[in-house]
Each structure stands twice: as C-alpha cells, then as structure tokens.
Design a protein that fits this description.
6-phosphogluconate dehydrogenase C-terminal fold, 10% strand, 5-stranded parallel beta sheet, 49% helix, alpha/beta, homodimer, 306 residues, 2 domains, Rossmann fold
C-alpha cells in the first residue's frame, strides 16, 4: 500500500483545545510532509501548546497562522466561530479551504459564510471527544474509526469536498456527507440531548435536601457516575451548542419529556409489563452499537479488571 | 497479616445471575475453606452454573441448597424475593442468617421478614454491577473497593451484622450501615433515576420520525452510547426495582423534571450565563467521584487507547 498524496500540505488549526490539539497531532502523525500551524486566542494556551510541541509552528497572531494555509480548521466553541473567522478574514490566502469541528452545523455554516464569503467552506463535525478539555487533552488517535460528518452547502466545489474528505480519512475517521439541518437534528438526539440530561441529573443530585452530596458521590457506581463523566464536559462548548442548536434540541427534549411521563405513569400505576417491554426493547440498540464498532463490549467498558 | 476466621463456613447462594455468580466466585476465591452451594430456579441456569464451576455444589432443589447453610444470600430480582424465601423457609436451619443483594431495601426487608419470621435478616446491597446478566456474567472481583450497604432492622442481633459485614469485606467490599428507607432514597438518585432516564432516552431515540435508528447507532459516540450501556441492564431486575422503590423514584423524578424544565427555559430564552453556570457546577462532582476512587480518571474511561 502506497501513501496517498497529502490532501493539504499546509494546515492551520485555530483553537488548541481537545479537538484542535487532536487535529494537529493526528495530522502530523498521519500525513507525511504536512506542516501544521496552530493558534489560540489565549496566550497561556499558545505557550502550553508550544511547550508540548502540539504543532510544527505555534503562531503568536491569527494572521500568521493562516498566512500560507491551504486548509484552515476552526476548532473553537461554536459561539466563537464568527469572531475567529472575522479575525483571519483579511489574511486568508485565495483558494484556502475553510473547515471546522463544531458540534452544530447550520449556525456555523452561516457564521463562517458571512465572515468568509469568498472562500470555499466545508464544515465538519468529527463525532468524537472525551470529557477533558485544554491543549493537553488532545491525542492523535481520537478520530480513529469515528465518524466525521461533512455538511457542505449544496453549491460547493466537489473537489474541495473530496480534499476535506481525504483529510479526515487520513486522520483515521470515516466520512459521511449530510445536510446541515439534518445533522443538527441527528446530533440533537445522539449527543446534545444526552448531555443536557446528564447535566440536569448531576445538578439535581448535588442539590437535594434528603440526600447529601457525599452520599451521592460515595454510591455513584450504581449508574450515576456515567452521567457525571458526560456532565464534566467543557461548559463553554456546551453552552454554545445548546444556544446554536436550540430548535432541534427543544424538539427532541419535548419527545423525551413525553416518553419520560409515560414511564412515570407506568411506575405510578405499577404497570410491570409496560416497564418490562420498554426495558427489553432498549437492549437491542446496545447490541447494534457494539456490532457496528461504536463501543466496547466489555462489561462496564472494561472498568472492572477480570 | 493473618487471615481472619471465615465469617461463615457454609454459604448458600439463591439465584445465579451476575450478582449471585459474583458472590459465589468471590466467596470461593477470598474465603479459605468456605463451601458455597448455588441454586437457581431455572434448570438451564443450574446446568450452565455447574458447567462453569460457579459453586462447590449446584443444588437441584432449593431445599438442598440451604440444608446446611450458615448464611443464605438471595440474589434474585427484588420482586422474586418473597417467593424465593418462601420456597426455602421450611428447610432453613435454625440460626442460619439471611441476606440478599437487592437494589431496593425497605420492600425486600419486609418480604424476607414475612417469609422467614424466625431468622435473623441482614439485608445487603452491594453497589456494583455491569450491564450484563446471567451465570456467565459473574466474576470474583466485582465487589472490590465497591460499597456494600447493609440495612439491618433496628432490633437485629449485632453479632449477625458483624458477621455479614465480615463476609462482604472478605469479598472486597467496603461496608456501610444505613436505614432501609434512607437507602432507598439515596439509591433512587444514584442508580434508579439514572437508569430510568437512560431507558427513556434510548427508547426516545429509537422511535423518531425524522432520524433513523441506523443514524442514531452510527453517531452514538457523541454521548448517547453511554446511555445505551445502562439501558442494556437486565429488564426483570429493573422492572422490579421501579415497582418496589416507587415512592422514592417518583419523588426524585419530580425534582429532576423541575430542573430539566429550568434548563429548557434557559435554552429557549437563550440564557447563556445560566447554562454556563450550571455546566460549571456539575464538573466538581465528577472530580470528587474520581478522588474517592469510585471511577477511572482516564478520559472516556480509557476507551480510546492513547
């Protein structure tokens, strides 16, 4: 097997948190001859990124980061996309392709399009992450076998989409194309609503009258601790996700609330068969996820060593 | 360090699923000289348990399992406790101590007390488990460093509580004493409500009009897949938990629903600061859980190898 030609030789990564750091590390380790320039609005993050050799060059100003870029990947919270794009707009080379890693896509596409009307934009959402954040959190294998959804506008240049596809595939991801609005609906279910619910229940549990916080922490192994992991995700990122994908999240939340009310009623009425039927159906979904390689089949994610 | 004397020399385990299998395996590997007899109402499970050497003896009838027992541990779903206890009641030796591993305690204490009025009952709830079930799911280290909550009635013999404590400590657990009603409230938050919510959202996601089930499965890595693990837990066990701990679950569900409505309102109104504040508070809980050794600090539970 011979290596494919590098889809981009010079890549600028704007924003050096978990995602930006992982893009930079993955690109450098997987794409031969690529030069990755990194930039972050925080001087502290830039210094840390330089210290841990996150990119070939850490630029001290956004304009330096993009000066020679063939691809710019915005890895900032979705609410910061417009400002990050505006900051580099005057310095972006002609022909430079623009992408991002935002978790909501319709609003990001609009923000990037308004700030950079003369550039080809191929928004991307790698469906991967951990609960950790900051430049030290990134790692080269984050995207391996994970899906990356591209949501290019209809009129976009097919060649640009092919190059961005090749870039994400080089980073280890599997690429899927989708309409931005549909993406936002799908991710509202598979990611945004789960995060909202985890954030809610962790808040609920930490603020009860009859049960102390230390009891909650002590006995969290019964299921609660998994929610705390999700609810430890970056607050800025998630605030922006909920604000930018508001309609889809509220729509899914409504369906969830109705379903919860139905189970609540079954519990109140002591309707065992209804509960049993529901709990049996949900097992099948888990099996499919493991079969498709989206999770680890070891019990408890292999937490218990046996 | 010299080994403590075995708290019980003959132990009967009634019900050979994940918990019963783990109790049997842990007792045999951790308590020198103990003899464990296992029994399950299902002939298929008994045959499998014998094939994988789950206990020193697999009894073919419940009465044989308990004939010489000093400790009987009921490891059946909480809704089956009364029947399981009634089945062995005539054969239980005088002085035999009775325990269980049920996830709700007030109802179990009542059921066991009614079926076995002449025996000392020390109910137990080891807060440990995986999403898997059946005799093959058990393993000897399941209880290591996990909490086991004992909820003895007030008038119980202190010596019996000490022996049951020693038994669970020998199995690797840390023991805590608690009033049964308070246990049910604590576990409603840390375990039962999280399971109910996970079961709900997995059901919601698998039954949408605008998003296909294959999309949900494909893009589950964004957070949803953690819920599917919880929602793959044993349906019979969980039906019984919700029916037997109904009041505490409904009480906690009400608080959760109010909190969810508050976050929903913040999203609808675009109240970024309120969302940010909430998402910041929930991070602290995660840190405490990791500090107390109740979870693994590796990102994503160490799912991603890096």
């Amino acid at each position: 097997m011979t290596a494919a030609p590098a889809p981009f030789r010079r890549v600028a990564v704007i924003g050096l948190g978990l995602l930006g750091g992982s893009v930079a590390r993955a690109a450098r380790s997987r794409i031969a001859g690529v030069h990755v320039t990194g930039y972050d609005a925080s001087a502290e993050v830039r210094a840390r990124a330089a210290a841990i050799d996150l990119a070939d060059t850490i630029a001290q100003r956004a304009q330096e980061a993009v000066a020679q870029a063939e691809l710019v990947v915005f890895c900032v919270p979705v609410g910061a996309m417009a400002a990050a794009a505006a900051a580099v707009a005057p310095y972006l080379p002609a022909g430079c392709i623009v992408s991002d890693v935002g978790s909501s896509k319709a609003s990001v596409l609009q923000a990037l399009g308004e700030a950079l009307p003369n550039h080809t934009i191929v928004p991307a959402h790698p469906v991967a992450g951990t609960e950790q954040s900051g430049p030290d959190a990134g790692f080269a294998t984050l995207f391996d076998r994970r899906w990356c959804i591209l949501t290019p506008p209809e009129a976009v240049d097919g060649q640009a989409v092919a190059r961005v596809t090749a870039f994400w595939e080089a980073l280890g991801a599997r690429v899927e194309l989708m309409d931005a609005a549909h993406h936002d609906l799908v991710l509202a279910v598979t990611s945004h609503l789960p995060h909202l619910i985890a954030y809610t229940i962790v808040g609920t549990a930490s603020d009860l009258e009859d049960v102390t916080q230390s009891e909650v922490i002590k006995f969290s192994a019964g299921g609660f601790r998994d929610f705390t992991r999700i609810a430890a995700s970056d607050p800025t990122m998630w605030r922006d996700v909920f604000l930018s994908n508001r309609d889809a999240v509220l729509q899914m939340l409504q369906v969830f609330t109705e379903d919860l009310a139905e189970l609540q009623k079954a519990i109140r009425k002591g309707d065992g068969p209804a509960l049993f039927d529901h709990f049996t159906r949900t097992r099948a979904i888990r099996r499919s996820i493991i079969e498709l390689g989206q999770d680890d089949a070891r019990p408890d994610f292999g937490r218990s060593d046996h």
